[in-house]
Amino acid sequence: MRIRVVNPNTTRAMTDTIERCAEAVVGQGTLLDAVTAEMGPASIESHYDEALSVPGVLAAIRRGEQEGVDGYVIACFGDPGLDAARELASGPVIGIAEAAMHTASHLGRGFSVVTTLSRTIGRATDLVERYGMQRRCRGIHACEIPVLALETDPDARKIVTEACRDAVDVNGSDAVVLGCAGMADLCDHIRDEIGFPVIDGVAAATLTVQSLITLGLRTSSRGEFASPPPKPYTGVLRSFGANP
Ligand code: 5HY
Question: Which parts of 70-192 are beta strand (E)?
C-alpha cells in the first residue's frame, strides 16, 4: 500500500521531520512518502494561515490520486482541508489532531493538549468539539514556541517537555497530545521524561490510515463526501475547477 503524508505548510525541513516519524512506524508492506505543500504559508499559526493552507493540501491530494496513493495523513494539528480532502480522495484521509485525540482517549479518562502559540488554542478547542472529545480533553495549553522555532530553538525540547509535565499536573490528565506536527520528533523523549503516555498525531494518523486500508475501508462516498460537483473556478484557483 502507498500512504502519503501531506505537510500543509511550505517548510521542507518540517516535512523531513514528519516523514522520519511516520516512516518509523509503518509496516514493511507500506510505502510511505511525505510531501510539502507547493503553495501557502511557511507555518500555520492563525486562522488566516490555515485558510490559505487548504489549496496546497488539496493540490497534494489531487496529485496523489493521479499517482495511485491509497491513503493520506494531513500533518498539521488544525487538520486543514480534511473534509474537502475526503471528497477528493478514493482512500482514507486522517488528520493528526483527530487521530491523536482518539488515540489518547484509549489510554485513560482524560488527556491534555500542548500546542504552540496561545492563539491556536481556539482552533484546537473547535476540533475537540468537532471530534466529540469534550468529556475527554481536560485542557489545552500553549508552550508559546512558534511552529518553525521548534526546528531551530535549542531550548524547544525542554520547553515542550515542561509544558507537557505541567499540563498533566494541572489537569490531572492520563495522557498528553502534542499539538503540532513539528513536535513529532520530541515524542519519545517527552514520554521518557514525564512517564505518561505522550501521543504524536503524525504516528497515530499514519497507523490509523494503514489500519483502515488493511481493513479495506475508506471514506464513504455517499452524500456529503461524494466527489464535488464539477464547476468553473476563476482567478488563481482556476486549475481547481478542472476535474477535481
Ligand atoms: C502544525 N502549524 O502542526 C500546526 C501547529 C499549530 O504549521 N503545523 C503547522 O500550532 O497549529
Answer: 71-74, 93-95, 111-115, 137-142, 175-178
For residue 10 and ligand 1, the question of a CB distance below 6 A is answered with no
User: Of 17, 76, 123, which is best to mutate to test ligand 1, by the most ligand atoms within 8 angstroms of its C-beta?
Assistant: 76
Q: Widest CA span of the chain, in angstroms?
A: 54
- Tell me, yes or no, if the two domains 2-96+203-241 and 97-200 fold the same way: yes
Q: Which three cell numbers stand for residue 90?
A: 478514493
Residue 168 CA, chain-centre distance (Å), reads 22
Domain boundaries, the chain: 2-96+203-241, 97-200
Contact (CB, 8 A) for 202 and 22: yes
Over residues 109-155, the pLDDT tens digits come to 999 999 999 999 999 999 999 999 999 999 999 999 999 999 899 99
Does the structural domain 2-96+203-241 have CATH classification 3.40.50.12500? Answer: yes
Nearest residue (CA) to ligand 1, atom 2: 44
**pTM given for the model:** 0.97
On the question of pLDDT at 244 being above 60, the answer is: no
Which tens digit of pLDDT belongs to each residue from 198-229?
A: 999 999 999 999 999 999 999 999 899 999 99
For ligand 1, whether the C-beta of 120 sits within 6 Å is yes
Count the residues in the chain: 244
- The domain defined by 97-200 carries CATH number 3.10.50.40: no
CA–CA gap between residue 168 and residue 190 (Å, rounded): 12
